[in-house]
Amino acid sequence: MAQASRKEILAALTDAETLYNQAPCGYLSFAADGTVIKINQTLLKWLGYYAEEVVDQKKFGDFLSKGGQIHYEMFFRPMLNISGSVKELSYELVKRDGSTFHVLFSAIAIRNAEQTILAVNAIITDNTDRKHYEREILRSKKLAEEEKRTFQFLADLIPEMIWTADAAGEIDYVNERFIHYFDLPGKSFSLNYILAKIQPEDRQRFIASWAESINAAKDLHIEIQLQNSSGQYEWHLVKAVPYLNEAQELIKWFGSCTNIDVHKRALKQKDEFISIASHELKTPITSLMGTLQLLDRMKNDPAPKMLPSLIERANKNVKKVHTLVAELLNVSQLNAGQLHLNKAMFKLGDMIFNCCQHVLTEGRFEILIEGDGHLEAYGDQNRIEQVVINFINNAMKYAPASQQISIAFTAGQGFVKVSVTDQGPGISKDKLPHLFERYYRVDSSGSQYSGLGLGLYICAEIIQRHGGEIGVDSQLGEGSTFWFTLPVSE
Ligand code: ADP
Predict the structure, then answer these.
(1) DSSP 8-state class, residue 186
(2) Is 451 in the pocket of ligand 1 (CB under 6 A)?
(3) What is the pLDDT of residues 46-69, one digit of tens each?
(4) Judging by DSSP bridges, how do beta strands 470-474 and 404-411 pair with one another?
(5) 201 near 236, Cβ under 8 Å?
(6) What does the longest C-alpha to C-alpha distance in the chain come to?
(7) Residue pLDDT, tens place only, 88-127
(8) Which of 443, 396, 450 is nearest to 421 (CA)?
(9) Rounded to whole angstroms, how far apart are CA atoms 79 and 76?
(10) 277 within ligand 1 shell (Cβ under 6 A)
(11) 372 CA distance to ligand 1 centroid (A)?
(12) Distance CA 473, CA 396 (A)
């Protein structure tokens, strides 16, 4: 197509009517009462009308939404009267098909010599895109806020202490659990505040590791004791990972503190237990070795006088080893859930009589049994005997000065209760809740009595697996009563 001559282009440019009609914005002139006097093609196209349908036929207000009409009356007109112009007011215009679009509206009033408004000239720009962007920005902002709230919720809900630090290692965010654990004074605190909460023995080690991690931008992984709001120190695993930007620069640290106190204590308890167990096993075995050496020496002796006492001593020590090994086996069976019960109805009186034989043979203690000989219970008789024997043996061991050990069995509503009472030193109140815990021994440091602290734990497990209860009533200086209950039927 032949190119338009410069003259032609200039002519087109200077054609005011063309400029007016094809401008990228809408032009509108209306009388003081709103009647449209002039409107350009651009605006007509946006609205979906022909000029003859609008000029002298419609008022500016006809193109406004309901809210727009109110705004026009309440704000636009008074503003125009006072200042003679309005600038970039946001309106929603209604098209012929009823749909709407957003515009920015600027207008200037044309007045006569008496300052009365004759007409209004307006420029209208399509604001749909801008509105769309504004809505997008608002939506993204809402989404970001929503995500922030979700993160906050998550961070505060998880049972971990979570924190972040800046590149220099200064803590700049902590979650609710963190604040709660240390009872922090609000959200503003320094790294020094947290350092003061580290057990002094661990502090230097932590500072050195943290500095090393920051310098090398490498993960932190350290176990330290932290002081909680009640002043107690608890073991924690403190971890932190560096966050690098695209240029591989360290910009933030994400960290957590996991409470591993129970786990640490359990490990320590296990270590202590292994050392006690080895010691407990070593004593009877050493004694047994001594006895065997003596027996070896006298093997050619025609009439060895010491033979009966040596055999008795050997028997005693083998029994000790056997008891200890049986306890250890019981515990591992319990842990593995392999303690099988052969439940049946059995007579309580007979069961208790079986349990007392070794005490009666020994003759050191008087045994008093009280109960209705017809009473029956439902359970694994051998396992229940194990519990009663444990109670009796403990009475003999821990209450050696007792003259008497009383065993009673009584009937309750749907259960029977068996109790073993001694006249020993009793147990202080603060120790009572722990007696049935694994490895617990009242006097764990003293070596006055041997034991692994497993007997009562095993008893409690056996009784609980029968659906019964186990307990102890005791006061210092008043003796102790260990008891349990059992169901009377399946
Ligand atoms: P152990 O192997 O140490 O005897 P137990 O679990 O049987 O383990 O007992 C736990 C602790 O309970 C014992 O170390 C002992 O201090 C205390 N205890 C148990 N029975 C009695 C009792 N009749 N009188 C006083 N203390 C007792």
Answers:
(1) S
(2) yes
(3) 999 999 999 999 999 999 999 899
(4) unpaired
(5) no
(6) 154
(7) 898 999 999 999 999 999 999 999 988 889 999 999 998 8
(8) 396
(9) 5
(10) no
(11) 28
(12) 17
Q: Ligand 1 centre and the CA of 463: distance in Å?
A: 17
As given in the structure block, the two tokens for residue 376 are 């029956």
- The CA 439 to ligand 1 mean position distance, Å, reads 10
**Ligand 1 atom with minimal separation from the 458 CA:** 6
420 within ligand 1 shell (Cβ under 6 A): no
Q: What sign has the CA pseudo-torsion 181, 186, 190, 193? A: negative
Report whether 69 contacts 61 (CB < 8 A): yes
Q: Which of 427, 423, 466, 419 is nearest to 443 (CA)?
A: 427
| Two structure tokens written together for 53 | 């349908």
Query: Cβ atoms within 10 A of the Cβ of 256, count?
Result: 17
Both tokens of 221, joined, read: 């992984």
> What b/e readout covers 348-369, taking b as 16+ CB neighbours within 10 angstroms?
bbebbeebbeebeeeeebebee
Query: Is 427 near ligand 1, meaning CB less than 6 Å away?
Result: yes
**What number of residues does the chain have?**
490
What are the residue ranges of helices labelled H in 298-378? 307-335, 348-362
